[in-house]
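Hello,

Following up on my earlier ticket. Below are the two sequence lines again, exactly as submitted.
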Amino acid sequence: MAILRTEKLIKNFGAMTAVAEVDLEVEDKTLHAIIGPNGAGKTTLLRLISGEMPPSSGRILFQDRDITARPYHEVAHLGIGLSFQKTNIFPKLTTWENVWLAAFSVGKNLGGFFRKAGLLDDVGRRVEEVLVQVGLEESRERRARELPHHEQRLLEVAIALALSPTLILLDEPTSGMAREEIPRMMDLITGLKEHYTIIMIEHNMDIVMSISDLVSVMYFGQLIARGTPAEIQKNPKVQEAYLGM
Amino acid sequence: MENQKGPLARFVPFGIVVLAVAVLPLFMPYVVATEIWIFALMACSFNLLLGYSGLLSFGQATFMGVGGYTAGLLALHWGLSLIPLFILGAVSAGLSAVLLGYFCIQRRAIYFVMLSFAFNVMIYYIAYQWTSLTGGEDGLIGLPRPNLTIGGWEILNLDSPRAYYYFSGVIFLLCFAGLRYFVQTPMGSILVGVRENEGRMNAIGYNVRNYLWICFIVAGFFSGVAGVQYALLFRQVPLDLIAWMTSGNVVFMTVVGGIGNLFGPVLGAGLFIWLSELISPIWARWPLIFGCVFIAVIMFFSGGLIEAGGRLWEKLRGTR
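Thanks for your patience. The regenerated structure is below:
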């Protein structure tokens, strides 16, 4: 069953079309990778789904609800968590505080606003769960800006996870990570696959082909292929357009 | 939001402020000491915007003025008692913050600064021109200072500077505790999050504009309380109370004291008022001293005097 569908989704920036009539279907509890060369429109597509920007036309349906052009801040409450390509954390706050802000956002109730933040046990428990899940529990007291890059990337994912999402959007989760640091992120994403639906943009083909259930290929804003990693690798259109073969 | 500090770390700083309220008149006249706590409250409320939310408002005097004028007019024409004066003065300032804040928080950075400044100037000229209501350039003068009564019973006669000082000190401490609690609730954490990364706060589900609006209103409300205190202290509302110069002074006080927490603005306000009231009769060019302090703080202690004190303390303890 499709948890997310886009219908004829278009995003224009002036005369340039970044996303051109994209019909994407993402099945529940799958890891759906979106690949394509730089400038293919992958990140723009994620930004449309996350509500960061409205589409020029078309529809986005999440769990059969039309969420097209919903305000950015509302989308997180619908169960969509976004992890950015460029690390987008709270650098001066501690790791714990970074995750806390996300956990409180979805767990908040009016009563919670009248209590001291440190006394909200349920939010604190959720933060601890997420920190353990991503393996950052030892860095909880460290300021985010002091974390090594790969831990900042993990924190980026942790913030998305703390929203208790149904769908996680991962935009190049291994971006900028050293080769030896990548397996830790891969293990994390593989573990997440069991519990969440994931849309992942990734340039590292080894990662894409080894952990994805389905792969969609974008080229000049259009979706040109969809299939399992094995099917995509054999697809002549993909080889021609994306792999340049 | 993080693990709670120990009881000592939580209560000692507040205890120092309580002690300061108790002993300050030993070192200066009651009127000057009262003025310090009034501007300390004003600076703390302003610091909600600057220190916690990252919004530099150059128009906070608007709300001090609205609170002061409201209380002044109600005291002068309606003879209201003390508690209603405070409530209505603060609420009117809060309501004006609802309106002006709605527009100001639509913009950020220099545009926010200019909007807050423009509204301040606009309200100032309304007060200046509307002579029949506000007294124009003369302001409102000859205000009565009602005694503290509850249910018709007189609790405290506020005629003497000493009585009014301690009454104002208690009002300050109550408001300070309220502001402190406010920044310790999730609201404080959310505002810090907005200051650090507004885009990410939106992405994780916070309607940032609404939170900034609430912050603006709360800051306006407490500035209104300070305005009422000021009007009753001097039994007048000078036009200058609502002038942009007052807004600027509050910025100076806060930055010099330190914007990292609520104690910095208290320190900054104390220093500013002390210099202006006690040094100015001796040396008219006292702003030079404050200017030097301001430059030194900006150059060497971006965390203000609080940070400078902290560093000195660490040095004395030999931890560095």
